[in-house]
Amino acid sequence: MLIEPVFSEGQIPLSEYPRPQFRRDSYLPLNGQWDYAFSPSAEVPKKYDGKIVVPYSPESSLSGVGRQLRADEVLHYRRFFELPEGFNRGRVLINFGACDQCCKVLLNGREAGRHEGGYLPFTLDITELIEGGVNELCVIVTDDASSHIYGRGKQSYASGGIWYTAISGLWQSVWLESVPEVYLTGLKLFPDGLNSTLSLYCRTEGGEGLIDYAVYDGDRRIAFMRGVKSGQRCTLDVSECLPWSPESPQLYKIVIACGADRAESYFGLRSFTVAEREGKRCFCINGRPVFHSGLLDQGYWGEGIYTPSSNREMYDCLKGVKALGFNMLRKHIKVEPLLWYYYCDVLGILVWQDMLNGGAPYKKLRLNLGPFIDLRLNDRDYKSMGRDDALSRKQYMAEAEGTIDSLFNCVSLCLWTLFNEGWGQFDSLAVCGHMRALDPTRYFDHASGWQDMGGGDVCSRHVYFKKVRLKNDGRRVLALTEFGGYSFSEKGRKKAFSYRKFASAEDYMAALERLYTRQILPAVKEQGLAATVYTQLSDVEEEVNGIFTPDWRCKGPKETFRRINDSLYRAFGEVFGS
User: Fold this and answer.
1) What pLDDT is stored for residue 492 in this prediction?
2) In terms of Cα–Cα distance, which of 35, 6, 65 is closest to 140?
3) Angle between helices 390-407 and 428-438 (to 10 degrees)
4) Pairing mode, if any, of strands 155-156 and 164-165?
5) For residue 55, is pLDDT > 90?
6) Is the CB of residue 83 less than 8 Å from the CB of residue 92?
7) How confident is the model over 506-550, as pLDDT tens digits?
8) At what angle do helices 338-347 and 311-323 cross, to 10 degrees?
9) Would the pTM count as exceeding 0.90?
10) Of 62, 25, 459, whose CA–CA distance to 261 is shortest?
11) Chain centroid, CA 175 distance in Å
12) What fold is seen in the domain 183-267?
């Protein structure tokens, strides 16, 4: 079953239901105008500075504020709401898509809960704090983008080059739902495309209850199981389902019910495995070798910075990627809203997901040397790697585990990148083993670019400034996980960063095609190169090496990109027999 997303029209920004893989009918969006104030104190202010549009960070122009939250300041949010008649079914939950970096939530002056980490969703039960009539909701935020403790992605107070504007506060949707006293939570899906089965489990909160599962192709039920205990894993025969792949992204609806609670999800029938041909390894979907031709995606959205102007913008961006013949995106040290992954599932775009980088400031000498020499330092030397703070290492593990938990059911997500270019890297082999135990269904790139400790499923190389020369180690899938970074001169631009500049758009496209034809294609044929990640999807602030502009205009002819990708897929097929 192929799915076309539905987009909402109205005054509330990003009002589409934000959790597509665990959807309930109960939904009250809280996006829109809130009161805000910058303050030196965590005490709730008596007077607010003005209005901010949630879920846009105050640093963005779309928020209506356009001001940086400093590390020594506190950002206060406030809004009022009333529950519609009949909304409360027993328990009331408030959901936050993400809040950067640490926050405390108050309802009617009483604390509802706290959260640390700027990228992952969290839910609070506010039933006991709800009052009849108008309720006052306050969120109190602190954020230090230079902190050694928390994951920060590309955020920097000194933006420029490959580092971008730091954001803060509420940058994903906020919404209410109501559930019965005993309700469903914690759905986990394990599709097996090799054996045409779907294993799954869900849990109940607030008491025990038996759970029913059903799989639908449209309105036709094709598999079901009744009366399963909370947390008990069961397996359904879904042999009637067509397999999911980038070429044919078939998705099927799942209905989960327990007593008065009901939720909907979906899945795609696929398995990610590795195959070997004459000493070379490649990625497979449902046993079929598939070349991954991708782009590095920083996850920045122009005027919204971390947040798109609309969910349609996200979807249209991804459609543009697919139209050029690419079948993969590497989401670079950022976690997107869940709808972004849903759109990838719908369109058939494979996702490589980076974990969040952190640790002490990165040494400039090491950053500058990385592209030229093969750095292999001891990543158990915490001080040298900028991870001598035990709390920093603990927070990395918590955020990485949370990322796996949050995105586990995403159909298109096939690979986890644990560390990038040694930034805050530590104990990478042990970390890889720990994370693989949490998710044995996907691939792992334990150290992307350099600082390779010989682990994971991927021999992962970044090549800039020099010719692409790769050697297959015979043990792992050979992948060029960053390369390119080309740009061309544009009139009126004063500050611009890229890895190689050309005088015109015509020279740029000619050089890009030569790069693929003369360096990438031979690596596929001779070394079994099985995946590529071109830098990058779009221009971001000063970094202008995107194949799209910030407003999603492609810098070259669509036919050229399709021709490049088609040649990669053909060459790969000759080597691996796909």
Assistant:
1) 65
2) 35
3) 30
4) parallel
5) yes
6) yes
7) 999 999 999 999 999 999 999 999 999 999 999 999 999 999 999
8) 30
9) yes
10) 25
11) 20
12) Immunoglobulin-like (2.60.40)
Structure tokens at 424: 């805050």
Strands in 122-125's sheet, in edge-to-edge order, are 28-29, 174-179, 91-96, 122-125
Contact 281, 528 (CB under 8 A): yes
Local confidence band at 422 (pLDDT 50, 70, 90 cut-offs): very high
> Which residues touch 117 (CB under 8 Å, ≥6 apart)?
101, 102, 150, 151, 395, 398, 399, 402
Cα distance between residue 226 and residue 232, in whole Å: 12
d(CA 253, CA 48): 45
Helix (H, G, I), strand (E, B) or coil at 202: strand
CA dist., res. 426 & res. 430, Å (int): 9
Q: Which residue in 559, 554, 565 sits closest to 505, CA to CA? A: 554
Q: Where are the domains of the chain?
A: 28-179, 183-267, 272-576
The conformation of residue 562, written as its DSSP 8-state character, comes to H
3-state SS record for 473-515: CCCCEEEEEEEECEEECCCCCCCCECCEEECCHHHHHHHHHHH
Q: Which residue in 63, 57, 54, 58 sits closest to 15, CA to CA?
A: 54
Which of the following CATH numbers is that of domain 28-179: 2.102.10.10, 2.30.110.10, 2.60.120.260, 3.40.50.970? 2.60.120.260
Predicted pLDDT of residue 491:
73
Question: How far is residue 438 from each of residues 2, 267, 325, 414, measured CA to CA in Å?
Answer: 30, 19, 32, 14
Is the Cβ–Cβ distance between 71 and 144 less than 8 Å?
A: yes
Q: Could you tell me where the beta strands, DSSP code E, fall in 355-464?
A: 413-417, 443-445, 458-463
**Rounded percentage of the chain residues whose pLDDT exceeds 70:** 99
Q: Shortest CA distance to 327 belongs to which of 297, 294, 352? A: 294
Domain range 272-576, CATH class: alpha beta
DSSP string, 263-302: EEEEE-B--EEEEEETTEEEEEETTEE--EEEEEE----G
Q: How many CA atoms lie within 13 A of 180 on its CB side?
A: 14
Query: Can you tell me the distance from the alpha carbon of 269 to that of 195, in angstroms, rounded to the nearest whole number?
Result: 10
**Per DSSP, which regions of 90-233 are E strands?**
91-96, 99-100, 102-107, 110-116, 122-125, 135-142, 155-156, 164-165, 169-170, 174-179, 183-192, 197-205, 211-217, 220-228
Q: Any idea how long the chain is?
A: 578
Sheet holding 292-297, edge to edge: 443-445, 413-417, 350-354, 328-331, 292-297, 531-535, 477-484, 458-463
Contacts for 162 with CB less than 8 Å, ≥ 6 apart: 154, 497, 543
The helix or strand, by DSSP H or E, that contains position 11, with its residue range, turns out to be none
First-to-final CA distance of the chain: 24
How far is the C-alpha of 398 from the C-alpha of 403, rounded, in Å? 9
> SS3 letters for 155-185?
EECCCECCEEECCCEECCCEEEEEECCCEEE
DSSP state of 46: S
Measure the CA–CA gap between 331 and 533, rounded to whole angstroms. Answer: 11
